[in-house]
Amino acid sequence: MRLTRYTDYSLRVLIHLALHEDRLCSIGEISHTYKISHNHLMKVVNALARDGFVETIRGRSGGMRLARPTDKITVGEVVRRTEEGFDLADCSGCLLSPACGLTGVLAEGMNAMLAVFDSYTIASLLADRATMRRLLDGQSPLSVGMR
């Protein structure tokens, strides 16, 4: 399975907001930081807000922030909300599917992958906050380790 860009961008938004919990962030800021299409990011943020991951504040000094604590948002929950269909293969049209063991193996693999994703929260992805913030601020990875 390969995760879509939509899921990738959703996780990036959540990580960005988690690294900046002290303030509101804008779509423009995140778009610029990650070099992601502003329009595409608007759709991502809209869905994150609808699903209760992000809180948006309208107006001149508005922006967005996480709607829940970082330790209450699992990677698995985000993946389930942003991905469509978890069938690794289309076994429904196969002549052998009633007797084949592949369907069960694929389902077991998918369940194992989602269980791993469920074991991680947004908080657990921020092991080195200081380095991550310096990287977002535009410092090269080489200079990050020198401080």
From TrEMBL:
Coiled coil: none annotated. One of its GO terms (cellular component) is cytosol. GO terms for molecular function: DNA binding; DNA-binding transcription factor activity. InterPro entries: Tscrpt_reg_Rrf2 (IPR000944), WH-like_DNA-bd_sf (IPR036388), WH_DNA-bd_sf (IPR036390). Keywords: DNA-binding. NCBIfam families: rrf2_super. It comes from Sphingobium nicotianae. The keyword Lipoprotein does not apply. The keyword Repeat does not apply. This is Rrf2 family transcriptional regulator.
